[in-house]
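Below sits the subject:
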Amino acid sequence: MSLQRKQIHLVILSVLISIILLTACRAADHPPERFNIEWEEKTVVVNDDPLFDSASVDARNIPPGSFGSEYARMTRLSKKEWMIVYTVYRNQGYFQDEKGGTSLEVAISNDNGRSWTALSTISDPGRDLDNGQILKLKNGDLLLACRSVRWQESYRLPVFKSSDKGSTWEKVSEIDRNEGTSGSLGNPDKGLYEPYFQLLDKGDIAVFYANEKHVTETPSFSQTISEKVSKDNGKSWGEERFVAWAPDDPEARPGMSIATPMKNGKIMVAYEVCGTNNCEIYQKTSDDGLKWEPGIGTQVPFQAGGPYVTSLKDGSLILTSNANDVSISIDNGASWELNPVAPWNGTFPQYIWASLYQTGTDEIAAVTSTPREAGGHRVEIRFGRISKLPSPTQ
């Protein structure tokens, strides 16, 4: 081949590469399209603990024997492998049993959430564990955060680590704690709840949680969303910073925060605001997940109590709550549109602590705690299919 022909081939190859890169960039920059989610009729039961006789009610006036399972959160491990953690009650509670209290069970699925196998149980004898969430680190280790409580007496946010894909766990740190004597941390409550991990750009781990410790301080806040950051894979945690708080409304109670990374590089946090705002759902965004504007943010219409927000691969957002509707945003949370059909036929307190996950290109998993006729809840999943809507010009 002559030098001239080689040069022509190189020019053609260069042009083709440029076209491919330009097409890829345009596809990446293409805004998400409007869509609905169509839900399947069949559900997957993850856990349905058997009933047993309760000796009495526990510290929260709950009969342990009919509790079942609640508050499930999923984490993707690989393409079709998922892990889930949820709360179970398998004893009479720490009033009746000094080693009693709620525990966390971890289960795994190898078929994209269609079936589940229990792996392990995490307990803290004499305390109630709840609000579990699992984060997969870059080295393959798993971190699990939760709340560990003796009500109105002791509140801790422990972190556990597993290096064997959830078969065993060891405690590695505490995010925060508040210790007192029996009844001393009540009236008003001074607890810590609902930790939620989020990986940041530089590999640091942020954790967001509800914090009542500042209620007796000046200025006073009935509850805030607080944040701490770990730079050593969860072994230690930095100084507390505020994420959502109401400087002019000390009775407002931002809580139950969930974080998600957005396609535009920002971090969104969604949370309820009880106390003075009827547990309506609000949102906030941060450029780096570290610096947050004062206040309680912007309301998400038609949602209330215990939110969960997820970023989809195309950049759109889906959000649910104890209202059990699903809201969709294709403009980074500037506006929200309700999905025509809810995944579950009911709301709080029958259906509680919902969450949403993208399990496939066009597939969404809706997880919640569903009611049982005999009392308490079970953990179930309903899958849905994303259906694109025609553009307004079509």
In short: Residues 3-29 form the longest helix (27 residues). Residues 105 and 121 are 4 Å apart (CA to CA).
